[in-house]
Please model this.
Amino acid sequence: MVNVMNLIGRRCKSHLENMRATTYIPHFPKLIVCGIIFATCNSFTTGNVFANEITKDDNSIARGAYIARTSNCISCHTDVKDGSPLLGGGRPITTKFGIFFTPNITADPITGIGQWNLEDFRNALTQGVSPQEEYYYPVFPYTSFNAMSTTDIEDLWRYLESVPTAKTVNRKHQIKFPFSLSLVPRLWRKTFFRHKPFHFNPKESLRWNRGSYLVEVLGHCHECHSPRNFIGAIIKKEAYSGAKHPTENSYIPNITPDPTSGIGHWDEDDISWFLETGFLPDGDVTTGVMAEIVETSTSQLTMSDREAIAIFLKSLPPIENLSLERKKKNAEEGWQSNALHNNN
Ligand code: HEC
Ligand code: HEC
Model:
């Protein structure tokens, strides 16, 4: 049904475009009919992309919980190591600009966001601005979440309201000077942030579009897998081609389909399997933050969502990132010689 409507939609679109090229007046009746069909088609073509349409759960809280896992709200905003309560915040995030502590986002009116309304929440998530007009640092990936659908945000909000409140008091970030100046996140946002609603690409399949929404918006995969400039903005034309780890002496892999430095030799099943289990095609297992993402997020997605992610990743333009590949080899050789030393 959706495909049929898609086809009609495309036909109508080209018809409308042709008409635009000539003159509107003689075609007026056709234009109205097509306009109506096209508007209807558009609402069909964006179907099955957002989480609330996929999970088929009519319970807003359950759908919101799915989004909270997919988007890592839970893992970033819960300090599991300290045994603190769900979404009570306090988890340290170390960056080269300093240490950030995630805030408590339960509905507690004193320690959490219990005094916020849905609009405040939407602004924080999509604009990076607090109800007091303070600007957030992009370590909170509002830069990706800004394209979240309105209903997904509402579901997420209902879910947060349902979580038991936590009394954890927010910790002050330990940001290095001059990045600690409140002017910095404001200027950063003005320079690098553009609000961009999710763009449904009618030339691609529904699953590709769902994959795009999962990777670019909810899963914010490019936030880690892309190189950044000196002030922490993603270098867009090199997105997904991997990056040096911001604080450790390691690298974050290139996940474009480049055959030598990326994951071009993985097929879609390899990617889905990895997202489900953390196993790489060579039998090795992922570690660190990605192991956590697999455990708390991608392994908990539906199979169909993992497949959609794989379809989208395979469609990215392959980018060769030789410097990373070389670093990877060096690291492996270094590791081997260390192991040899230890054995001797
Ligand atoms: C990579 C870690 C990370 C992820 C993922 C993340 N956040 Fe956050 N979030 C942060 C940090 C760090 C801050 C504080 C930013 C600052 O103070 O500038 C923050 C701030 C917030 C705030 C503002 C709270 C306040 O008291 O002002 C809200 C609301 C929020 N996050 C909700 C969410 C939701 C909902 C999700 C999932 C859709 C999410 N976050 C995902 C790290 C994260
Ligand atoms: C918080 C940072 C972070 C986020 C977000 C993140 N990744 Fe990763 N990812 C990593 C790191 C670090 C590794 C390397 C782990 C290792 O060395 O074992 C990795 C490894 C991978 C690999 C294995 C590649 C290889 O060649 O070994 C794939 C595939 C991958 N990530 C896909 C994704 C996808 C898809 C998403 C979004 C759903 C995502 N990642 C989100 C940090 C991240």
In short: Confidence is low (pLDDT under 50) at residues 1-46, 335-344.
